[in-house]
């Protein structure tokens, strides 16, 4: 054979291989969802017939024999093709479904029809439906939900609304585009075709000031690290808007540009204002009438909130009034990217909000959770028997106390730098009523007694330091602050009379064994709304083993009242975050 013929033959072989590769990459896929904790599998694919296409979805039991699943699939395809028959075809009874051939192969060998679905459907297998061939893909990277938020502001990171399955975000492809026609160019062209300019790659994107007035497009190609799933394009429904300018929390960020030093850790406590309380007619018209309605909407507030919390570079984050949906859709995924693990504790009953504790994985590891339902503990624990009997003597007090849904969230963490150091982090949100100081006293006492029980559980595991954080709805002049910081409240304290004679409990004396102090001191206020302001939020620390290194300064009063009160277009909550850097002694 001459060298010319040899070269020609090699070229032809290469062309054939290229064609085969192209065919294999364009072969339609059949997706199989097969997860461990589900006793069923889901099979989905698109099938075309006579120019019409339909998606088929089968939900079959894992233990069912393959033959039965294929028989059901045959019946479904027959129904689809029968609908497309012409009258002549029906009379002649000629159609694909009469002689439909369906077979599943793995490594070019027919799969045993008696095998259960759990074993029959394998990654890389091939399903033949007459002349159509499908590649079987088990648990492909899948986009279940992907949306760009309804509020997009220049200078604020966009956090997508998403739900993925079998996807590694870090290995997936995200491409961001803006339309290259601004709003002012709308009459310039009669073409309906929108041109897009790529501006960034990555899961997160922060629009610039030059992009105000433009819309966004995101092209996502999900991946599990080895395979790519079906790509999806999503578009913003609104234009990029200008932000509110410099927010007061950004001035506080000047003190938290870096993470805490070795041997130290930064703590935040923050009531973030639950959406269930902010986005209602009552809140817009009565609670916060001075705040523009758009600034109370979650899509607006969450942009400020996430930027604020991220910028503090904390190691421990205690949040109150956390909506379940906000925890799942915003806080948990965003803070996970920032290196945090977190947990949510909802209030008792039907209340859709609660508290959250997040901790930086590089600083701490979780040893245990010891959450508390206060009312259940009060009624059932022997150590509160005498207290509960006293409460029951006053029906009005008993009714108010037992109607509370307050909880205490507790996490015990171990320092990654020094495993002998343990940190017990507790957070709560006490009853708010101004005439309920007597209720809050008992709530504080139950919390402190519970933390003493936690200390006993870990007494042989090294130094266990304590943080008690939260919105305690109590000023420094009241009994809760006195109980926590002085270890004792006697029967003559005026807070026992806060509910009137019908709630007054005689001979009430409460105490505990901790040495606690406020890490941030007692600011003039941590909550500032129309008609009220006061210091309600605290980071109480175990002064035997912890000390304050730095307290992040509060925003100035001028910043707080710039838009009358909180929340506002620059403050996402009616509370102000308390932040301190602490170290072990």
UniProtKB/TrEMBL annotation:
Keywords: Exonuclease, Hydrolase, Magnesium, Metal-binding, Mitochondrion, mRNA processing, Nuclease, Phosphoprotein, Transit peptide. One of its GO terms (cellular component) is mitochondrial matrix. It is found in: Mitochondrion matrix. GO terms for biological process: mRNA processing; nuclear-transcribed mRNA catabolic process, deadenylation-dependent decay. Gene3D superfamilies: Endonuclease/exonuclease/phosphatase. GO terms for molecular function: metal ion binding; poly(A)-specific ribonuclease activity. Residues 268-366, 461-575 form the Endonuclease/exonuclease/phosphatase domain. This is 2',5'-phosphodiesterase 12.
